[in-house]
Design goal:
Layout (H helix, E strand, L loop, with lengths): L1 H58 L1 H12 L10 H17 L3 H6 L1 H27 L8 H18 L1 H12 L11 H12 L8 H29 L5 E2 L2 E2 L1 H31 L24 H12 L8 H26 L8
Antiparallel strand pairs: 1-2
Helix pairs in contact: 1-5, 1-12, 2-3, 2-12, 5-6, 6-9, 7-8, 9-10, 10-11, 10-12
């Protein structure tokens, strides 16, 4: 009898150990497989978004540089009078390479910016959706355009904050010319020089207007794009929608409209951000506000002071300097980014909405 009890106990112990081992194995496989799949999916998405962003930004780099030059040029020494004249002037004075000055820095920040943005948007969407379901008591509730606006704004703020020093030195590399006494030799040299000569806070100069500007820009981008898509799908005007799917051309039009609305609303903040970034750089010959005897007019005590001095010295229109080349580049930039993203997505097997 005792022998049978011992045998049963032994069998039970062996069975328990085997079951625990199997459960541990299954649990391990159950955790690792989805995690590996999720990480691979995130990596693919970031590669697709990074390539698309780099290609689209490079294609419109001349317009991007001209926009920044128009934003910060001295109103008493006008060099750039418009898009065509400005591009011709850069070509004549700096050559072909001058049209793409600062683009390397711009592209270099696309990958980390996209990485943080995609990850932050995904996590913010999950958190906002969970909170929304808890508040409404509806476990089947989905994200509304307003909630997407909030998630997009959070992602934009986090991504912009994480890569802001790169954007700051990009602005300076873009503005500097061959006549500048001091030359930044590249991204690393610009970062270390600004850090050493102006302090770590200088790398985040203009951060506040950037944060404020990201909210309407990214938020409106999501809200307008999604609202237009919903309206087109529901109303089906002009036969644009077939089988509840929008054509590539229609999606591009929605994206262009969303980008135009967002950047127009947030553009004054972008101008102020760019001017604040130039503060402290004595060799920025084209960013002085006022004549040569009054260089101090460029010194801003904050975002409000920058707004006030810009409007007082140059008028309200100065807040929209460079808007035309910026608007001109919106449509081709979105179009090229979309096509490139679709190609890379198909190659890598990534499934993601263009609005993401």
């Amino acid at each position: 009898m005792a022998s049978e009890d011992v045998k049963r106990t032994s069998d039970s112990a062996v069975s328990t150990i085997v079951n625990l081992a199997e459960e541990a194995k299954l649990a391990s496989e159950g955790v690792k497989a989805p995690t590996s799949h999720a990480l691979l999916s995130i990596a693919k998405s970031l590669v697709a978004g990074g390539v698309a962003g780099g290609v689209s930004r490079t294609a419109v780099a001349p317009l991007e540089r001209l926009k920044i030059l128009l934003q910060v040029q001295n109103p008493h020494s006008i060099k750039y009078n418009g898009t065509i004249q400005g591009l011709k002037y850069i070509w004549r004075t700096e050559g072909f390479r001058g049209l793409f000055k600062g683009n390397g820095t711009n592209c270099a920040r696309i990958v980390p910016n996209s990485a943080v943005k995609f990850f932050s948007y995904d996590e913010a969407s999950k958190g906002i959706l969970w909170f929304y379901r808890q508040q409404t008591g509806n476990e089947d509730a989905q994200l509304t355009p307003l909630l997407r606006l909030g998630a997009g704004a959070c992602a934009g703020i986090i991504a912009m904050s994480a890569t802001y020093p790169m954007d700051m030195v990009r602005g300076r590399l873009t503005v500097q010319t061959d006549m500048s006494p001091q030359q930044y030799r590249g991204i690393y040299h610009a970062l270390t020089t600004v850090f050493r000569e102006e302090g770590p806070r200088a790398l985040y100069r203009g951060w506040l207007p950037s944060v404020i500007g990201v909210v309407p820009y990214v938020g409106l981008n999501f809200a307008v794009y999604e609202s237009l898509k919903d309206w087109l799908i529901k109303s089906r005007p002009f036969g644009l929608v077939q089988d509840s799917e929008l054509s590539v051309t229609t999606r591009l039009a929605c994206g262009a409209a969303a980008g135009t609305v967002g950047q127009t609303v947030a553009y004054p903040l972008d101008v102020i951000r760019r001017r604040m970034q130039m503060v402290g750089w004595k060799d920025a010959a084209s960013v002085v506000v006022g004549d040569g005897k009054n260089r101090a007019s460029l010194e801003y005590t904050g975002m409000v002071d920058a707004f006030r001095k810009t409007v007082r010295h140059e008028g309200f229109g100065a807040l929209y300097k460079g808007l035309v080349p910026n608007s001109v580049k919106v449509v081709p930039s979105i179009a090229i980014a979309f096509v490139t993203y679709e190609v890379v997505k198909d190659v890598l097997g990534v499934e993601m909405r263009i609005s993401d």
